[in-house]
């Protein structure tokens, strides 16, 4: 029996890992769609484009899925579509095309954390666990029936990049374990409980602002949620923008937004102290806190 014709939309590390699982399983991949890397983005993940090229799979990087692209996909007659961290909306006419369905890999335990940047939000919100979900794609994003989902713990020291890597591993396992039943059309689907759904918006660089009225743990969670390779957390001293790439929460008291000590370099928050460890003035060099003692003496106040 011939294997079903598969089109894959993929990007980032989960996309790379899941595509690699399909390749190892000798799936009949007739085309891969991915993205051009953004020169303004810190690229930390393996290349879906390179992986497809290395395995002689036709690969495309359109700026958008326009009518011409949709017509070409129709000509390929896909029987199955996978979307693994593809960043653009795939039109409904394409999603509904394959006889075996279209499936998306989401980096959370649906129905919780629907929406984009779900991994960053989970870390920013201080979640202690998350996971990956493979689900049927429908006209409403992230609402389709679930094929499989598996969770894991988020350590208190994990950054979003650490969680991304964990999601990638789990995602690969899910694809490996469910491919045969999906190809055979025998996969069992579980409807999502919409009453338990949560949805978060896309995060933008401006969302990294540190409000020192909040407690130290919440500020720490924001920092680890948006630190490298993401745009970073920041505060202002006067009109100077200071990125804080790493810090840790401590017990203690201090005036909100004020430097209370320099060794260690600590700032008061709404509850507890935040010890600043890796910092960078805008357009400056990232350095350890010891290099900022003169710039941030005791009594320095952040804008709040």
Automatic annotation (TrEMBL):
Q: Which Pfam families match?
A: Formyl_trans_C (PF02911), Formyl_trans_N (PF00551)
Domain Formyl transferase C-terminal residue range list:
205-294
- All copies of domain Formyl transferase N-terminal, residue ranges: 24-171
**Gene Ontology, cellular component aspect:** cytosol
State a single Gene Ontology molecular function: methionyl-tRNA formyltransferase activity
Name the record gives this protein: Polymyxin resistance protein PmrI
Origin species: Megamonas hypermegale
Lineage, top ranks:
Bacteria, Bacillati, Bacillota, Negativicutes, Selenomonadales
């Amino acid at each position: 029996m011939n294997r079903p014709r598969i089109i894959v939309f993929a990007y980032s590390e989960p996309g790379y890992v899941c595509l690699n699982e399909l390749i190892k399983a000798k799936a009949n991949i007739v085309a891969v769609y991915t993205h051009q890397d953004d020169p303004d983005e810190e690229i930390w993940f393996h290349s879906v484009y390179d992986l497809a090229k290395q395995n002689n799979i036709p690969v495309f990087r359109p700026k958008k899925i326009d009518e011409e692209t949709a017509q070409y996909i129709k000509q390929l007659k896909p029987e199955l579509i996978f979307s693994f961290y593809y960043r653009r909306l795939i039109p409904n006419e394409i999603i509904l095309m394959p006889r075996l369905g279209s499936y998306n890999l989401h980096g959370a335990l649906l129905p919780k954390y629907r929406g984009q940047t779900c991994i960053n939000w989970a870390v920013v919100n201080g979640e202690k666990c998350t996971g990956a979900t493979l689900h049927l794609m429908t006209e409403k994003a992230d609402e389709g029936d679930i094929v499989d989902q598996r969770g894991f713990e988020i350590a208190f020291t994990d950054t979003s990049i650490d969680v991304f890597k964990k999601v990638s591993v789990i995602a690969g396992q899910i694809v490996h374990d469910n491919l045969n039943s999906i190809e055979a059309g025998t996969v069992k689907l579980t409807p999502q409980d919409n009453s338990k759904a949560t949805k978060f918006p896309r995060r933008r660089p401006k969302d990294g602002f540190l409000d020192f009225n909040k407690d130290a743990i919440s500020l720490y969670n924001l920092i680890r949620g948006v630190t490298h390779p993401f745009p970073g957390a920041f505060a202002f001293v006067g009109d100077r923008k200071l990125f804080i790439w790493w810090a840790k929460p401590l017990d203690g008291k201090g005036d909100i937004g004020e430097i209370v000590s320099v060794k260690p370099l600590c700032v008061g928050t709404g509850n507890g102290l935040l010890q600043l460890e890796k910092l960078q003035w805008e357009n400056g060099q990232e350095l350890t806190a010891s290099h900022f003692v003169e710039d941030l003496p005791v009594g320095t106040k952040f804008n709040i």
